[in-house]
C-alpha cells in the first residue's frame, strides 16, 4: 500500500500553488534574485517520519526563522530569568524591523523582532566569546536541529551586510541602553551570518519536529532543549512569531510558528508534527503568501490547531472486571491511553466513587502508553489511599509506564505478571 | 477512598492565600466594599465533575469575564466575518479601558477591551432589538452556560452607572465611527447590566468547562457554541484575554483565560477542564493577584499548559498479530487511544511499510476511544488502498468510533464481532 | 487721493481666488451646503480702520475660531494657574478632533483642540452657572469683541448636534478624568452653540485687532483682555492654533492665528493689525485653502511676520546739540520714536559714554511717541545717575510720555516748555 | 554716568543664582566634571554693545546650540526646499535624543533634535566633501558668528565619542532611509566635534545678536545669513528649540532660543538683542535651570517677549502744517519713527482722508529712521496718486531713507533741502 500522507500534502500544495501575489524580499539585493515561484512543503513527525512535496529540498537562507532557535539557545545557556532581563516576550504589534524598545530600559519587546533577535544572538556564548565563536555555536545548534551539516550562503551574507544600516542602528541603540556590550559591527556581522545559513524545507520540518518532540531531535535522538525550554519557546512563537498578526494567526492557524524573509515558515505542534514551507513571494508583513495559505489549510483540513478539541475521550478506565470469587475475588481496573492530569482525575474519581467489595485491587496498565508527572502522583496517591481503606493493591505494568511505584508509604506497589 | 483532587486544589489554594497585595477594584464604589480576603477556586471537568475549595460558592459580579461569552454569542449570531468587520482580534498591549480603536475605521482592537466588548454587546440580537431584549438574550446565554438561573446585582449596576463616563465616551466614539448605531446611553446601560450578573467560582468553572468541552455544557448536555466557534473564542482569549501581558500569560500559564475586576478569572483548557478563581484583590492590570498565582501553579503543577507535550505516545498500533495459519491466516492490527491526524499518520505509515503476507487484514478498534475527522479520512483511504493491493479488510468496531466505514469505493468495510 | 490699501488687498485676493482645491466641511451636514467659492478678506488696524474685499460681510459660523477667545475668557475669569491645571498649552501634532489627553491626568494637550476647547468652555462662568448662562457670557464676549450684536445659526447648531458623538465622547472622557464636572450633554450643547455664532470676516478682523491692540477693542475702546492675557493667548495661538503644522505656519506666516471649519481664519500681529479671511474650501487639516494662501502672501508681501526685522533703527537719540554758551551752556538730547528696552539701552549707553562738559542736560521727548515700562525705569535711572554726577537735568515732555518723572531720589525731574 | 544696564543684568543674575537644583549632564563623562555652580549671563545689542555678568567669559562646549547655526548654514548652502526634503520643521514633543523620524520617509521631525542635527550637519559642504572639510566649514561659520577664533575641546570630543552609540544608531538609521549617504561613523565623529567647539556666554550672545540683527554680525559687519534665512531659522528655534516645551516657552519667554547640554542657552529677539546664559545644572529636559529662569525674568522684566505690544504709537504723521499763504501755501506732513506696513497704512490713510486745499504737498522724512520694503511701495504709490489728483509733491529726505523715489510714473519726486 502506498502511504496516502504525501498525497494529502500534494493536494494542499496544489491548491496553494495558484497564489501568485507578493514578491520576494527586495531590500536585500541577493534575495530579490531568487525564483519567485519555487514552492515546497515538508512535514516531520515526532518519531522522525518525513514527508515532502515540491521544492522541499531546495536550499535557501533561514533568515528570521533562526531567531526562534537562537532564542532557545540563549535561554538554554543563560536561563530564562537572565534572558528576560534583556528581552521581553510581549507581542509588539509592530513590523519585524521596528525598533520596539521598552521606554527607559531599551529592552526589546520580544525576541522575534530584529532588536530582540540581535540581543539573543549576543547572549549566546560565554563572556568573552569571539563573534566567530558565537557564530560557531549557533551554527552547531542549527546543524544539530537539522540533523546534518548546513552551509552558509556567503553571497547573501555579503549582500545583506551591504544594506545593514538598520541592523547596525538597532545594535548601536541596544548598546547605548546597555542591552548588549560587544561591538555592534561584529554582532551584526555574525547575526547576519546566522540568517544566511542555508536550509531546505525538509531541514526546517525536522527542526520544527524537534520542538514538537519536546526538544529531542526525532532522528538523531539528541536532546537539544529541555521540555520546559521548548514549552516557553513555543509560547513565544505563538504570540510573537508572526509579527503584527498574532491574534489572527492563533485564531486561523493555531500553530506556534516563525517566518523568514527567505520565504520559509516553520510551525511546531507539540506532541504531533513539525511543518515547514518554502515559497519566496512575501506579503506586506514579510511572510510567505503561499506559506501562510498552506498553514491555514493544514490547520483546517488536518485539525492541526492547538485549540482543536478531540472528541471527549471515554473513561481511561476502559474496563472494570472481577476475577475469582468470594474472598479470593479481585477487582481489575484496565486503564488505557495517554494519562495526563485529566485522565488521572477520571481514574481517581472512579476509584473514589466505586468502593469495590473485593478486597484486592489490580490496576492494569498494559494499554497505557504513558503517564504524565502530575498523573503519576495522583495515581500513586490513589493507591496509597486504597491501602489506607484496607485494600491490597497490585499493578500490571510490563512497559514500566509507572516506574518505581512507591506511593510514599514506604511500600512499593507489587507487580503481577498477569491475571 | 477519598478523591485526592480536592486535596490538590486545597494545597494550591493554601499556598496562594498568603498573597495579600492588591486591592479590590475601587473605581466602582460598590465593588470597593467587598471583603478583600475572600478566595475560592473551582474546577470542572468536561464530563461534569466539579471540584472546589474556599469561597467558591460566594456570588460576585461577572464583570469582564462576560466579554468572552458575549463575543462568542455575537459570532454565533452574526457569523465571524460580520463580527470581524466591527472588531479586530489583535492584542492591544493596552489596559482594559483603553480606547484602542483602529485609525480611520474606529474598529476596536479586540473584543476583550471595553471598546470591543461594548461593540460585541451591541451586535447581539436581531436588528431592531430593544436593549432590554438584548440583555435578556445575554442573560439567557450566561444562565445556560452556568446551568442555573443567575441574578443581577442591582446595587453594583447602579453604582457602575454612576461612574460610567468612560464607557459612555467609548460608546459615543464607536457611534461616531459607525461601529455601533444604537443610543450610547442604552447600550452602556445594558452592557453594565451584563457585567453585573452574579456568578460563583463554581458557575464560572462550569461555564469555562463548556468551552473546554467544545461548546457543550458538561452537565446539561446543551450545545451552546459550535466547536469551530469555541476554537476561535479560545484563540482570542489566549492572545487578548489577559490584556497587556499576553506573551507573559501564554508563556507562564498557557491556558486561554479571561479576568474580571469583580475578582474572577476563568481558564479553559480544550478537551480537559474549566477552571475559575475568585479573589477580589487586583494587580495594577486589574486582574486578581491570587487568581493569577493560582493559575500559574495549576499550570505548572498539573501540567495544564497548552504546550505541555505528553511523553511521546507509543504507536497507536498497539499490537499486530496473526490469527490462523496458511491461506486462512489473518493479520490483526489492534489500534488504541484517541486517534487524530498524528495517530492516523502513524497507522497508515505502518500499514504502508508492513505489506503483510497474510491476505486478510483486520483492524481492531476496540481500544480506540475516538477518531477525529481527518483521521477518519486517512484510515478509510488506507483501507481503500489495501483493497486495491488485493487485501480483504475487516473492522472490529463495537463502539462505532468509525461509523459508516465507506472508503469511497462503494463497498463499506465489513464488521467482525471478534477474532 | 484714494487709499491704496484696499487695492493691495484686492490684488492678494485675486491671486488667491484661483485656488479651487479642497471642499467645505462635510461632517456637519449643514456646513456642506455653503457656496464653496465665497471668499472674503478683511484687515483692521489697532486704531480701528477697517479694509475688506470680496465676501467679507457674508455671515458664517465662527466654529473653532471661538476657541481662542473663549480660552482668553477662561483665563480672564479663573486666572492662568487654575486654567493650566485643566488644560496644557503644548502643540499636540494631532488633528483638531483628536483626543490628545495627557496620560493619567486626562488634561487636554492645548485649548485649541476640541478636548481643550470643551474644557475651557466649561471653565467659563462661576460655579453653579447654568449652561445657558455660560453661553450667554461667551456670546457677550464675542459681541464685545466684534463691536456689534451677533446671532446664532440655529440650523448649523442643530445639524452639528445631530453628529455630536465625538464631542460627547470627549466630554464624557473629560468628566471621567474630573477635568469637567457638568453634564456632558449640556456642555456639548452649549459648546456647539458657541461654535454656531454667526460672524463676518470684518467682524473677525476687528476681533483679531482687539488682540493686536493688547486687548482693547479698537473702535469701542472697551478693554476686553489685559495685555498680559493677550500676550499669553497669542503665544498659544502661535504654537497651537493651526493644529498639526505649527512649525510650518510659524516659519511661513509667523502670525498668531486660529482657523475654523466654517472657513474662517484669523490672525493677529501684536501692535499692528488684525486679519481675517473667509473661504469655505478646506485642506485635509480642516483649514481654509485660500485663507492659508492669503495669510502667506500678506505675511510675505507686507512683511507681516513676527520675526520680520525692521532695518536697524538709527540711534533713538536723534540729535544732540548745545544751546547757550559758557556756564550757561545746556546739552540737549532729542529722543525720537517708540522707546522700549532696546531703545532705552541705546540712550543710556550714549549718556554713559558721552560725559558732556555742559553742566545742564535737557532730554527732549517731543518726538517720542511712547516709552515702555522697563524703558521708563532705565531712563529715570539714567537721570538719577546724571544728577549724582552733578548735572542738572530737565525734561521736555509736552505729551507726558514719561509721566510722573521721579527717578527715585525724591526730586521729580522738572519740565521745560521749550529750549 | 555709569551705564545701568550691567546693574540690571547683575540683579537678575543674583536672583537666579540661588537656584541649585539640577545636575550637569552626566551621560558624557567629561561634561559631568564641570563646576556645577558656574553662572554667566551676556547680552549683545544689534549695534554691537556687549554686557555681561558672572562667568560669561568662561569657555564651555557649545553642544546642541550649534544645531541652530548649522541648520542655518545648510539652508544657506542648499536652499530651504532641498533641506526640507531631508528634515521637517515641526515640534516633536519628544526629548532631544528621541529618534522622531517620519513614518516611511525617515525624515527627522526637526533640525533641533539629534536626528535632524546630524542630518543638517551632513548637508553642509558640497558633494564629495570630506568630513574634515565639512567640520572646517562649520568651524568657520561659528568663528564668524562669534567674531573670533574658537577652539575645540578635544577631551570632551573624545569623551562623547566613547558614548556615541545613540548618535551612531541615529546615523545608521538615517542612512537606511537614504536621508544621509556618508559613512555614519565619520558623520557622527565630525558632528560630535561640532558640538565640542568651545565658546563663552559672551561669544554666544554675539552669535545670537547676529540673528537678532537679521544675519549681520554686529561687530565685524559680516553678513552671515540673509534676512530671509534668519527669519526662517528664528521661527524654527521658536517652535523647536526648547524640545518638548514649545508651548510653555513661547508663552512664558517668547524669545526664539536654543539650549545645549553644556549648560548654554541662547535667545535672539529680532531687531533687539542676543542673549546667552551659561549654567551647567540641567533640568530633566536637558536645559539649564538657571538659564531658563534668567530668560523668564529678562522676558518679563524687560518686556523682551515677541508678543509684547508696544503702547499704540501715535500717528507716524507727527505734524501737519501749512507754510506760506494763498496760492503759495504748501502743506507739510512731518513723518517720524520706523515705518513698516502698519505705519505706512496710517500715512496713506491720513493722506487719503485729508484732501488738503493747498496744491503743493511736502513730505518731511527728517525724523524717519527707516522705511520697510512694503512701506516704501505704499508711500510712493500715495505720492503717485497725489500727483494724479493734481498736487505737486516734494520730499525732504536728507538721510535717504527713501532712496530713488520714483513712484512709477517716470518722474522721480523732487527733493527740498528745507522748508
From TrEMBL, chains A, B, C, D:
<dbReference type="InterPro" id="IPR002645">
    <property type="entry name" value="STAS_dom"/>
</dbReference>
<dbReference type="InterPro" id="IPR012338">
    <property type="entry name" value="Beta-lactam/transpept-like"/>
</dbReference>
<protein>
    <recommendedName>
        <fullName>Glutaminase</fullName>
        <ecNumber>3.5.1.2</ecNumber>
    </recommendedName>
</protein>
<feature type="binding site">
    <location>
        <position position="160"/>
    </location>
    <ligand>
        <name>substrate</name>
    </ligand>
</feature>
<dbReference type="InterPro" id="IPR015868">
    <property type="entry name" value="Glutaminase"/>
</dbReference>
<comment type="subunit">
    <text>Homotetramer.</text>
</comment>
<dbReference type="GO" id="GO:0006543">
    <property type="term" value="P:L-glutamine catabolic process"/>
</dbReference>
<feature type="domain" description="STAS">
    <location>
        <begin position="328"/>
        <end position="396"/>
    </location>
</feature>
<feature type="binding site">
    <location>
        <position position="243"/>
    </location>
    <ligand>
        <name>substrate</name>
    </ligand>
</feature>
<feature type="binding site">
    <location>
        <position position="114"/>
    </location>
    <ligand>
        <name>substrate</name>
    </ligand>
</feature>
<comment type="similarity">
    <text>Belongs to the glutaminase family.</text>
</comment>
<feature type="binding site">
    <location>
        <position position="191"/>
    </location>
    <ligand>
        <name>substrate</name>
    </ligand>
</feature>
<feature type="binding site">
    <location>
        <position position="64"/>
    </location>
    <ligand>
        <name>substrate</name>
    </ligand>
</feature>
<feature type="binding site">
    <location>
        <position position="261"/>
    </location>
    <ligand>
        <name>substrate</name>
    </ligand>
</feature>
<dbReference type="GO" id="GO:0004359">
    <property type="term" value="F:glutaminase activity"/>
</dbReference>
<dbReference type="GO" id="GO:0006537">
    <property type="term" value="P:glutamate biosynthetic process"/>
</dbReference>
<feature type="binding site">
    <location>
        <position position="167"/>
    </location>
    <ligand>
        <name>substrate</name>
    </ligand>
</feature>
<keyword id="KW-0378">Hydrolase</keyword>
<keyword id="KW-0007">Acetylation</keyword>
<dbReference type="Pfam" id="PF01740">
    <property type="entry name" value="STAS"/>
</dbReference>
<dbReference type="Pfam" id="PF04960">
    <property type="entry name" value="Glutaminase"/>
</dbReference>
<feature type="region of interest" description="Disordered">
    <location>
        <begin position="400"/>
        <end position="419"/>
    </location>
</feature>
<dbReference type="InterPro" id="IPR036513">
    <property type="entry name" value="STAS_dom_sf"/>
</dbReference>
Amino acid at each position: 500500500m502506498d502511504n496516502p500522507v504525501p498525497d494529502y500534502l500534494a493536494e494542499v500544495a496544489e491548491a496553494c500553488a495558484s497564489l501568485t501575489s507578493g514578491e520576494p524580499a527586495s531590500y536585500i539585493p541577493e534575495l530579490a534574485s531568487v525564483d519567485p515561484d519555487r514552492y515546497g512543503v515538508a512535514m516531520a513527525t515526532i518519531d522522525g517520519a518525513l514527508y515532502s512535496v515540491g521544492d522541499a529540498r531546495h536550499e535557501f537562507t533561514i533568515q528570521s526563522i533562526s531567531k526562534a532557535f537562537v532564542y532557545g539557545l540563549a535561554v538554554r545557556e543563560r536561563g530564562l530569568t537572565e534572558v528576560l532581563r534583556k528581552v521581553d516576550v510581549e507581542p509588539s504589534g509592530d513590523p519585524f524591523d521596528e525598533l520596539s524598545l521598552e521606554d527607559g530600559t531599551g529592552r526589546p519587546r520580544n525576541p522575534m523582532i530584529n532588536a530582540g533577535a540581535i540581543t539573543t544572538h549576543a547572549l549566546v556564548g560565554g563572556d568573552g566569546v569571539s563573534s566567530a565563536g558565537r557564530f560557531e555555536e549557533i551554527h552547531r545548534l542549527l546543524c544539530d536541529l537539522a540533523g546534518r551539516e548546513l552551509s552558509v550562503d556567503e553571497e547573501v551574507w555579503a549582500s545583506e551586510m551591504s544594506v545593514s544600516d538598520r541592523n547596525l542602528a538597532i545594535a548601536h541603540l541596544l548598546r547605548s541602553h546597555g542591552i548588549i556590550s560587544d561591538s555592534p559591527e561584529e554582532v551584526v556581522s555574525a547575526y547576519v551570518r546566522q540568517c544566511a545559513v542555508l536550509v531546505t524545507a525538509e531541514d526546517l520540518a525536522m527542526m520544527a519536529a524537534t520542538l514538537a518532540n519536546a526538544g529531542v531531535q526525532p532522528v538523531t535522538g539528541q536532546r537539544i532543549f529541555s521540555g520546559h525550554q521548548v514549552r516557553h519557546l513555543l509560547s513565544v512563537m505563538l504570540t510573537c512569531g508572526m509579527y503584527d498578526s498574532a491574534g489572527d494567526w492563533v485564531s486561523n492557524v493555531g500553530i506556534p510558528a516563525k517566518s523568514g524573509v527567505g520565504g520559509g515558515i516553520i510551525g511546531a505542534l507539540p506532541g504531533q508534527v513539525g511543518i515547514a514551507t518554502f515559497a519566496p513571494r512575501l506579503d506586506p508583513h514579510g511572510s510567505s503568501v503561499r506559506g501562510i495559505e498552506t498553514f491555514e489549510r493544514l490547520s483546517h483540513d488536518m485539525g492541526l490547531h492547538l485549540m482543536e478539541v478531540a472528541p471527549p475521550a471515554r473513561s481511561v478506565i476502559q474496563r472494570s472486571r472481577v476475577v475469582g470469587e468470594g474472598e479470593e475475588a479481585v477487582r481489575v481496573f484496565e486503564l488505557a491511553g495517554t494519562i495526563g492530569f485529566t485522565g488521572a482525575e477520571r481514574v481517581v474519581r472512579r476509584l473514589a466513587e466505586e468502593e469495590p467489595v473485593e478486597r484486592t485491587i489490580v490496576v492494569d496498565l498494559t494499554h497505557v502508553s504513558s503517564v504524565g508527572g502530575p498523573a503519576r502522583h495522583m495515581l500513586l496517591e490513589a493507591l496509597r489511599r486504597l491501602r489506607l481503606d484496607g485494600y491490597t493493591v497490585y499493578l500490571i505494568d510490563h512497559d514500566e509506564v509507572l516506574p518505581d511505584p512507591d506511593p510514599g508509604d514506604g511500600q512499593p506497589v507489587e507487580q503481577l505478571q498477569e491475571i
